[in-house]
């Protein structure tokens, strides 16, 4: 295990163009605000139609709270990500590489599958309860229940489509080498896709440079309200097989910036320590 040392970001050379970072949380804020306004409109409609107020008031309140909370979270995450990307705005990074299409495509496919599953779970979790409420109100008031159920269906579809539209451009397959720039807080791939680990909610515990797999693994936990609710998590970054030594140095610098240990597995340094 290597002792962490302070990270030092320098203007990288080597002829690799640095992609312009895109902040997905900034893009997600507007749809969330729009959904919150829809919730407020439902509340107003429920107040204006006393006979149908029950279903619409409950649904409107739910949509307003969920969408408003999501908008606030997106604003906070967008600001945190801007801070993480500050080094790129200054033209500073630890490394710039070009990933072979086979390496990128395998990495992108794994990320796409994982984020698609998360999107489905989040969409389902947000809208199952309102859908059940709509079905309940159908038994009490057919018109109000149908209106509520229709709004839930449209909202769920809209949430999923917005999520897909934000996700789809990020992890496309490529047939040309994909540029990547890495700082101590984030990595920027391809056309600006960002992977960041310096955001609130994720606590870094250690860095592992897995040379045989050509992966830098940032191991940590996603924070919950208590230690019991924290779950193990990891952020992975691919690197070219020919850049193993440089990747080890990048891993050390990331670890140094966060005061955590760094381990190199399967490389020359690891072999030397084992011998």
Main sheet: strand order? 1-2-3-4
The major β-sheet equals:
4 strands, antiparallel
Distance between the termini: 14 Å
Mean pLDDT level: 76
Share of helical residues? 40-55%
Strand content: 15-25%
Give the number of domains: 2
Helix/strand-derived class?
A: alpha+beta
Please trace the helix and strand order, writing H or E for each element: HHHEHHEEEEEEHEH
Number of strands: 8
Rg value: 23 Å
At a glance:
The chain is an alpha+beta fold.
Structure notes:
Helix 1 packs antiparallel against helix 5 (142-167). The strands form two sheets. The protein has a four-stranded antiparallel β-sheet with strand order 1-2-3-4. It is 54% helix and 17% strand. It has 275 residues and is α+β, with helices and mostly antiparallel strands. It has seven helices and eight strands.
Chain-wise SSE layout:
Blueprint: H1 24-48, H2 53-84, H3 86-89, E1 95-99, H4 101-140, H5 142-167, E2 178-182, E3 186-189, E4 193-196, E5 202-210, E6 215-222, E7 231-238, H6 244-258, E8 262-265, H7 268-274
Helix pairs in contact: 1-2, 1-5, 2-4, 2-5, 4-5
Throw out a few tags for this protein:
4-stranded mixed β-sheet; 2 domains; disordered N terminus; alpha+beta; single chain; 8 strands; disordered C terminus; 275 residues; 4-stranded antiparallel β-sheet
């Amino acid at each position: 295990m290597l002792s962490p040392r302070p990270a030092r970001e320098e203007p990288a050379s080597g002829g690799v163009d640095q992609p312009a970072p895109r902040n997905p949380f900034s893009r997600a804020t507007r749809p969330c605000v729009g959904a919150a306004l829809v919730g407020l409109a439902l509340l107003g409609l429920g107040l204006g139609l006393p006979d149908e107020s029950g279903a619409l008031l409950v649904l409107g309140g739910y949509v307003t709270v969920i969408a408003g909370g999501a908008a606030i979270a997106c604003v906070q995450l967008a600001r945190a990500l801007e801070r993480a990307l500050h080094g790129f705005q200054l033209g500073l990074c630890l490394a710039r590489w070009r990933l072979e299409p086979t390496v990128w495509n395998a990495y992108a496919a794994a990320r796409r599958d994982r984020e698609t599953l998360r999107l489905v779970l989040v969409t389902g979790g947000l809208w199952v309860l309102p859908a059940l409420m709509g079905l309940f109100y159908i038994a009490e008031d057919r018109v109000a229940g149908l209106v509520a159920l229709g709004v839930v269906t449209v909202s769920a579809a809209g949430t999923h489509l917005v999520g897909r539209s934000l996700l789809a451009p990020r992890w496309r397959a490529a047939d040309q080498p994909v540029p990547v720039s890495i700082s101590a807080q984030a990595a920027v791939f391809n056309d600006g896709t960002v992977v960041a680990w310096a955001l609130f909610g994720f606590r870094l515990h250690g860095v592992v440079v897995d040379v045989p797999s050509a992966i830098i693994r940032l191991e940590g936990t996603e924070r919950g309200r208590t230690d019991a609710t924290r779950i193990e998590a990891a952020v992975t970054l691919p690197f070219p097989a020919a850049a193993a030594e440089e990747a080890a140095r990048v891993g050390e610098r990331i670890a140094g910036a966060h005061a955590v240990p760094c381990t190199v597995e399967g490389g020359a340094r690891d072999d030397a320590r084992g011998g």
